[in-house]
Design brief:
about 550 residues; alpha+beta; globular
């Protein structure tokens, strides 16, 4: 063999080994930091307050140029404004971007100066929107949730939907750079073009979204809706759009504080435990069960750890895998062949040849390896999935299946604790089936959603908008609620959203969960491919059988 051939062969071996070594490496996300044009914001604030000249005279609009640009005192008018609005929006001055809200500070101050009665509600100054259900300002920006009452019927806002309409707004210093094939799409809104020249409207991932930029900052207003005909119990996007545009027309500067410029964050390798776990194995990110994707599409191989979280279940072992396409699953309405009639009956999903049994406590359901199901077939829009549709998150089973009796084929709910993944603030209205945890720090702006806990219990536990929780704090129990108790298997659906210029978008949480689980168990998992799969283990890391137990043993 010539020296050139030897060099070539050695290079091939090195690259193959390097690829094998790095195949399961995780990385941090790419996050851009925007530059805020505070001078433009100050000029706009002066214009808005001038609607009440006697109020504008009270504000100091001259900048203190001798102070560093990052000094909060450099623009006294914002300090003065924060002092007023913080009584209604606590902590508003923590936002490093101008806070736009449907609140009229000039009218509010003018009424107070002229002896207006205290009985006038905040809604009077917010174009009919009630006091914010949730307002949170932090080092990454701000988020708020407002509601327009069902009986508000001024102008063109008559609607069929019989409940209050929730409106979300976010302004962020941090923008996550993700691979988004639908970025930049949307229709201009002519009626608001003079106020927001770059405003675009788009319906995606279950929300009608209005995105725009002001003062160099991306803002997004969104309302969850269905693109269909109006119904009294289902908000149509057409009616939601009218509410969103009413909200946009009412936006004014309500606060914020200039701060130091921050550098953008480039992806780096995510640190993982060096000690290998003797038991924990997982299939690669993006590898979903064969033909379980929407229109048989594959998954999305994302190795990004979007946040260093606490694993959302209190205890190990836990098992991340499919609910629809594993044992007892409904195959996402594709048909079970033959239809199972009793516990232990064999069947398969019509879309593949994987043999299953009609038993939620089956060995495979409570065994390693883990498997991604972010892009598993569902009727939910997910821009990261090849088909544009997917599951939005990852399903996780708890340590074991507790059966009511030996003849039962369902796992008992409310036996295993769910905990907060990070310090954050809750976004959830009463009766809603999902609870979202918002995290807003110097380096991240991210949301985590928990599903299938019982909403009545969440209401009782006051897991509602505005509540602050600490990382590791118990916030609920693993259950099987989906529209009603027992509507799904006993598991936690966990997903991640990051803020982009398109608003909050779903990203694959699988690598984030793998890394969190590794920290929980104190060892690094082993990524395996299909060819290397052993028979499903019925043993947990401590040697016990995690599959099932009598309800009386808990």
């Amino acid at each position: 063999m010539t020296s050139n051939l030897r060099w070539f062969a050695a290079t091939v071996v090195f690259l193959s080994l390097h690829t094998a070594t790095c195949a399961d490496e995780f990385k941090t996300p790419s996050i851009s930091t925007v530059h805020v044009e505070w001078r433009a914001a100050l000029d706009q604030l002066k214009i808005e307050l001038s609607a009440q000249p006697s109020i504008a005279e009270r504000f100091t609009f001259a900048s203190r140029r001798r102070l560093p640009a990052s000094d909060p005192r450099v623009m006294p008018a914002f300090q003065q404004l924060n002092a007023v609005t913080s009584r209604i929006y606590p902590g508003i001055g923590r936002s490093p971007v101008p806070v736009l809200l449907p609140f009229d500070p000039a009218l509010f101050l003018n009424d107070r100066a002229n002896g207006a009665p205290e009985s006038i509600t905040v809604a009077h100054y917010q174009s009919g929107f009630r006091q914010a259900d949730m307002f949170d300002a932090g080092a990454a920006g701000y988020d708020a949730v407002f509601a327009l009452p069902a009986d508000y019927d001024k102008g063109s806002l008559d609607r069929t939907y019989a409940k209050p309409v929730e409106v979300h707004i976010t302004g962020s210093l941090l923008v996550y750079d993700i691979n988004d094939p639908f970025a930049g799409k949307g229709d201009p809104v002519r009626a608001l073009a003079s106020q927001f020249p770059d405003l675009r409207r788009v319906i995606r991932e279950g929300f009608v979204r209005y995105r725009f930029s002001r003062f160099g900052v991306p803002y997004v207003v969104s309302i969850q809706c269905l693109d269909s005909v109006p119904r009294s119990r289902r908000l149509a996007c057409r009616e939601a759009s009218a509410v969103a545009e009413h909200f946009l027309k009412a936006l004014r500067i309500a606060g914020g504080t200039p701060g130091r410029k921050r550098a953008s964050q480039s992806p780096v390798a995510f640190e993982r435990p060096s000690r290998p776990s003797p038991n924990f194995t997982y299939r690669p990110p993006g590898e979903i069960i064969a033909n379980s994707g929407y229109r048989e599409q594959s998954g999305y191989p994302d190795h990004t750890v979007y946040s260093q979280i606490r694993f959302p279940l209190e205890r190990a072992p836990a098992f991340a895998n499919s609910q629809s396409f594993l044992n007892w699953g409904d195959c996402f309405l594709r048909g079970r062949v033959p239809p199972p009639r009793r516990k232990g009956a064999s069947y398969r999903c019509r879309s593949n040849d994987k043999q299953l049994v009609f038993d939620e406590s089956a060995d495979e359901n409570y065994a390693y390896p883990w498997q991604d199901n972010f892009c598993e077939a569902r009727d939910f829009e997910v821009g990261q999935c090849a088909s544009g549709f997917g599951h939005q998150g990852q399903d996780i089973r708890p340590s074991s299946c507790i059966l009511r009796n030996d003849g039962a084929d369902r796992c008992e709910p409310n036996k295993f604790a769910i905990v907060a993944a990070r310090d954050g603030v809750v976004i959830r209205s009463s009766k809603q089936q999902a609870a979202t945890l918002l995290v807003n720090t110097t380096t991240e702006h991210v949301r985590f959603r928990y599903m299938h806990m019982n909403p009545d219990q969440m209401d009782t536990d006051q897991l509602l908008s505005g509540r602050r929780v600490e990382e590791g704090e118990e916030i609920g129990l693993v259950a099987n609620y989906q529209d009603y108790p027992g509507g799904t298997t006993n598991h936690l659906h966990f997903d991640v959203q990051v803020f982009t210029r398109e608003g909050w978008l779903w990203v694959n949480p699988y690598a984030t969960l793998v890394s969190a689980y590794e920290r929980l168990i104190g060892g690094r998992g082993r990524e395996i491919n299909k060819e290397a799969l052993p028979e499903p283990s019925a043993k947990a890391p401590d040697g016990t059988n995690p599959r099932s137990a009598s309800a009386t043993s808990d």
